[in-house]
Amino acid sequence: MEVDDAYSLISRAIDSGHAAHGYLVCGDLRGQCDALTEMILRKLFPNEPAQVESRCHPDIAWLEPEGKSRTIHVKSMRERIVEPMASTAFSGGWKAGVIVGADRMELAAANSFLKTLEEPPPKTMFLLLTDQPDAVLSTIVSRSQRIDLPLSEGLLDDDAYDAVEEVLSSRGVSGVFEKAQAGRRLAEILSEVKDEAEDEDVAMARKAFYRTVMKFVRGWMVKGELPRHQAFRNVSAVEDAFLQSERYLSDDAVLCNLADRLVWPA
Question: Are 238 and 157 in contact (CB under 8 A)?
């Protein structure tokens, strides 16, 4: 579903008084999800566009993953979503709660939110944004209306994808030597990908490489091969590696460090 079509669907539901209390919006967090969220919030709060844009509207609660593990903890869930959404709206109208990265909720946070989603106050809407819907607690998914937006994954193609898969399909990688070997092989793959790209496309090639690595690392969590807390740390490690690569550190150093930080499935 395109963003405009999704907005029209939700807008009509709002106008008719049949809007869902929870929408699970699946797509690129900083792309289509972000765009649809702003459109919906402007619909709910038409008289305060500046406050909506600056994320300082008193009737809109925001929550994103935090800390090195990039996790949504139960304390933050209670303080930033559950408690604010239970209070009376300042404007006397709608209240909205936006959870960015709904798949990053730890179990206690998800259960805390679930109670609010099951018995929401009147004129309350939750927007749960995720690019990994399979990792969202199933009971939250079942109580939300799912909106699937186009997901422009931007992954590596063919041989390069298969090469990354071969490295990250290894199991029981634990020793220093094994991890160093994995890191060096990933660096070789990235070097080959960049060599094949045009000069102006090197940055996009590097981004596609790290997106591909992220896909497999997240897959370890979705498939239940690692506990969520370890999977979250792995995701954080990949995000850090991408940022380090933007500082023009050597690929070998960045990816050997990444391979060392990863908790590999047994």
Answer: no
